[in-house]
Design brief:
By secondary structure, the chain is an all-alpha fold. The two termini are about 25 Å apart. The relative contact order is 0.24.
Length: about 300
């Protein structure tokens, strides 16, 4: 039986970095939402990110290599940037950053369904079905107070973001494998900039936003977009799409911590219980049905590999 490869030291570093960095946008989006429209927020984020990455991608000469797979570059841009960032930014106008982060913790659970539709033959065992039920139960607990506070539409926008994020890694791993990470990221952000240019221009603020809003927009573009996207694509290449999705176990915890500490959002027992259920459900739902392989992964991932890739 084929042995499941261990996660390298580089993979662990990428996992931790992406997990922390992508837990920060929920806070920054909440801050930026208070000073600019959703269209301007997303446009600023993708435009600055593309300005930072496109020149380097052009110098490396790898953009041309994407032409035969341009449809999949567009698809990745749609499900990783264009649609989810609009939905999430809109949702956070009515939901707290903590709740938004927790709702996105369902990505690995949705990813199980996406993988099945994409041809994954790993069977759904009783444990995995239990994980799906437990995780969705945690989401159901959140939906009551979330819908009451921000409306059902906001909850659906957050869950729609999770669906997009579950699809993205599959496209990246299966259709863009071997493509230059920098070029894929730059092309995706450039395409998103074109899509959002007109709506952003029509809703551009008449006065200069507050310094905290401008700082949030800059951090979103530079750290949480340009840098994080590159790290995430490297993580997918290093650890595979299923393991890469597990980074969403870390994001919600960071989002909740920042929301409570920085924004003073409430940390209720319901939030803690819901997060526990979603996390446990995600772990069980993404567990391999191949017992020897699963045991190998658990044993190897308990101690990071010593090789440097």
């Amino acid at each position: 039986m084929e042995r499941v490869s261990a996660v390298s030291r580089q993979g662990w570093v990428l996992f931790i970095a992406v997990g922390v960095i992508w837990g920060v946008p929920f806070l920054l989006i909440k801050v930026a939402d208070g000073g600019v429209s959703v269209w301007v927020l997303v446009f600023t984020r993708v435009f600055i990110g593309s300005l930072l990455l496109l020149p380097a991608a052009m110098r490396r000469g790898h953009l041309r290599a994407l032409r035969p797979r341009w449809r999949w570059v567009v698809a990745l841009s749609v499900v990783e940037v264009i649609v989810p960032w609009l939905l999430l930014s809109a949702a956070e106008r009515r939901l707290s950053s903590s709740l938004s982060g927790l709702l996105l913790a369902v990505v690995p659970i949705i990813g199980v369904g996406v993988a099945r539709l994409a041809g994954d033959r790993d069977r759904l065992t009783a444990i995995r079905w239990t994980g799906l039920a437990v995780g969705l139960g945690g989401v159901a607990l959140l939906m009551g107070p979330a819908a009451a506070g921000g409306g059902t539409a906001a909850v659906l926008e957050a869950l729609g973001t999770a669906v997009c994020y579950a699809i993205g890694p599959v496209i990246a791993a299966r259709k863009l494998a071997g493509a230059d990470d920098l070029s894929v990221t730059a092309a995706s952000l450039g395409l998103a900039s074109v899509v959002y240019a007109v709506p952003a221009a029509l809703t551009w603020p008449q006065a200069i936003p507050a310094v905290r809003v401008l700082g949030a927009l800059l951090a979103l573009a530079v750290v949480c977009t340009a840098l994080a996207f590159l790290l995430y694509l490297r993580l997918i290449a290093e650890a595979g799409p299923v393991r890469a999705e597990v980074v969403t176990y870390v994001n919600p915890a960071v989002a909740v911590a920042l929301g409570v500490i920085v924004l003073g959002e409430p940390l209720t027992p319901l939030i803690v219980i819901s997060f526990g259920l979603i996390l446990a459900g995600s772990v069980l739902a993404t567990r391999s049905s191949n017992r020897p392989a699963a045991a190998s992964v658990q044993a190897e991932e308990a101690i990071p590999a010593t090789r440097d890739d």
